[in-house]
Amino acid sequence: MKIPKSVKHYCPKCKKHTLQNIIQNKAGKKRGSTTKGARRHERRGGIHGYGGFPRPQPEKSPRHRKKTTKRVDMRLECPSCKKKSTVVNTFRIKKFEIVKTGV
Ligand SMILES: [Zn+2]
Asked: CA end-to-end span of the chain, whole Å?
């Protein structure tokens, strides 16, 4: 899906509508698994015993299939005050593209 590079949007800091740039927010680095459950899961090497939390992968059935699209984390940046704001109404799309609009 193609998305324009800049959109007119309300900036809460400037208290007016400004032409803001759309940026795709990239997920930060994952820190090592530090929770107790994650450490135990690693030590046991997967699944042991009956049921419990770390369940085996579900069978290939339509009920358990994974989603093929992802919700894009879009941010808006105001050029005058450099404040970033999140876009609340994002949608599930396969392909994400920021396109320059001829102004
Ligand atoms: Zn602003």
From this structure: 20
- Render pLDDT for 15-48 as a digit per residue (tens, 0 to 9): 999 998 888 877 767 666 577 877 777 776 655 5
Those residues whose beta carbon sits under 5 angstroms from the ion ligand 1 are 11, 13-14, 78, 80-81
Give the separation between CA 92 and CA 57, rounded to whole angstroms.
Answer: 24
Architecture in CATH of 1-28+64-103: Roll (3.10)
CA of 75 to the centre of ligand 1 (A): 13
- In the chain, DSSP assigns E strands to 2-4, 6-11, 16-24, 70-71, 74-77, 84-86, 92-93, 97-99
